[in-house]
Each structure stands twice: as structure tokens, then as C-alpha cells.
Amino acid sequence: MKPRRLDDTGRFWSPGIRTGVEPGSEFHRVEYFGPVLGILTAATLDEAIDLQNATDFGLTAGLHTLDPSELETWLERVEAGNLYVNRGITGAIVRRQPFGGWKRSAVGAGGKAGGPNYLVHLGSWAPSPVTPTSTGAVSAPVSRLIAAAHDGAGSSGALAAIAAADEAAWSASFGRSIDVSQVGLERNVFRYRPVPVTVRLAEGGSPVELLRVLAAGLRAGAPLTVSSAIGLSAGVRAALGSASVTQASDADFLASASRGELTTSRVRLVGPAEARGQLAIALGGDPSVAVFAAPVTPSPRLELLPFLREQAVTVTAHRFGNPDAWSEGVL
């Protein structure tokens, strides 16, 4: 069904439906804001998710199902900031469904409008001193990093205290799926998902600050690519597990960035203020790369967020007005 022109200006058209859209075609991959719905078909849920994720955008996504296993598969794989199950995928409400996308549907830090972190990235922050205190248990990768810091350069006592604060914040909010609205017949769950990040220690940057940033990345479970202007100890490299670790001068790192060779869409930069400007120039203002270059702090919220993407999941929790808890075992 083709759209019809409804006025003389050419700005008002009837909605249309386009069938037979081919995977990988322009209409599949380009984000059109005209009133046209393109339809692709898939033989399986996994194939449908592949098609859904094959675009450079990821604002909203939807699924209709009453099968918990299908929901679990979709929630694990879909790449979008706002997810809707068994309902329409428009009309996000502040606080209930904080709004913001993934990939090229977001620019910069990606804090969702109407969410708990939106104001965090609109200000500037300075670190305050940390007094080492008694600490609690931390995740195994972070524990190994603390041990490596103790064996080499760095204050392992301060790092242990900071890591314990990260762990407490993870247990309280960042590692949980939380429905703050509690409207009953609709579940509105806010959660965090790890995102690949390049951590760069520039020339003149602090190795101690690098360890603090790495502790946050490990706690978040983010896939890490580490580039350092100085050599890292064998213990630190071992604590980073499968992370890619390289040593490179600023000139070499910036040249690589200018050639488009960064493998992640986020960079956590540790170093002097001028390093941020140099990286911005090397990237040519590329909006698809978010650079976090603020001073390193002990704050769990400030240091965990670069390694996490926010996601809002809305699930209709009734059938014809009758409460239905089918999704609670999944999310």
C-alpha cells in the first residue's frame, strides 16, 4: 500500500506498508521517518533478531510472545535502548520508560532522558580523597587486579576500598533489574548491559587512575580493549583475562584512531586534559565514538557508567485485564 499525498505542500501523506523488503537493502538499513512500514520475514526468532540488529540504529524494538524462552532469547540478544513486549513501541513515559537508544540512535554518553543518570553527564566532577577502610568481597577479576596492584605500583588499599564501593553499588542498582514505577499490569524494568570499551592511558596519565578505571570495567563485565603508553605488569595483564592489551605511544594511538581502527564505540581516556582534544581531532568529530575523558574519581556511578548501556524493558503484564506474571521468571 503506497502512501498518498494529502495536501498541496507535499508534507502530509497517508501511511503506507512496504512488503517484500530484502535483508540488507536500503529500506532495511536506513532509518526513514516517513509514514511507511517495511516488512521483512524470518523463519526463526534468531533470524529475526539478526535482521533487527543488522541496522546501525537501536532506539526501540518490540516483540509479541507468551513464551518465556523466546522472551529470554530476545532480551539477551536484541540491541536497542527501549524494548516493548506485547504492546506498541511508541509513547515512552518519563521515569516509567526512560528514553534513549543504542548504536547510532545515541550520541555521547547515552544517559536516558527521564532516567536516573541523565543529569550525571550534564555537569563536571572532581575526585575527592579516599581513606582506605575495611572492605567487603569483590568479584574475582577485580580481586586479582587488586592483588596485582599490591605487587606493583599503586595503592592497593585505596583501590580495594574503591572496589568495595563499586561492588556495593553493583549489588544495589547497577547489577539489578528494577521496576521503580510498580504500576501493576505493566512491568517497566530498568537495567544495565555491559558495552565494549577501549581504555587508554595517555602519556602523562596516572597508572593508579588506570587501575581504578580497569576495576570499574571488570566489575561491569564489559569487554575491554586496553591501550597504554607504558608497559603493564604481568599481574595486571593476567587480571584482565581475555582483554586485548597493547602498549602504544600517543602518536601511534592517535594515528590508529584517525584511520578508524578503534574497535569499540566508547573510549575511557585516562590522562592530561590535552589528551582529550588530541583524540577529538584524531577522530574528526565522529559522533559514533563517545569519549569519556573526565578526571578519574572514586565514585562508582561515574566510573561504572562508561562501561554500561542503559535499557528500559516494558512488558504488558495482563491478559484481557487479568494479571499475568508469565515474564517474571525471565526478567
Question: Any idea what the CATH architecture of the largest domain is?
Answer: 3-Layer(aba) Sandwich
Q: Can you say what the CATH homologous superfamily of the largest domain is?
A: NAD(P)-binding Rossmann-like Domain
CATH T-level topology of the largest domain: Rossmann fold
Q: What is the mean pLDDT?
A: 93
Structural class: alpha/beta
Q: Major beta sheet, specifics?
A: 5 strands, parallel
Output the number of helix runs: 10
Kindly state the number of beta strands: 15
Return the CATH class of the largest domain: Alpha Beta
Low-confidence stretches: none
String of helices and strands = EHEHEEHEEHHEEHEHEHEHEHEEE
Radius of gyration: 22 Å
Number of domains: 2
* Percentage of residues assigned to helices: 25-40%
SS strand fraction: 15-25%
3D shape = globular
Q: Termini separation (Å)? A: 38 Å
User: If strands are numbered along the chain, what order do they take across the biggest sheet?
Assistant: 10-9-8-11-12
InterPro entries: Ald_DH/histidinol_DH (IPR016161), Ald_DH_C (IPR016163), Ald_DH_N (IPR016162), Aldehyde_DH_dom (IPR015590), Proline_metab_enzyme (IPR050485)
Domain Aldehyde dehydrogenase: 7-115
Pfam family, one: Aldedh
Organism: Frondihabitans sucicola
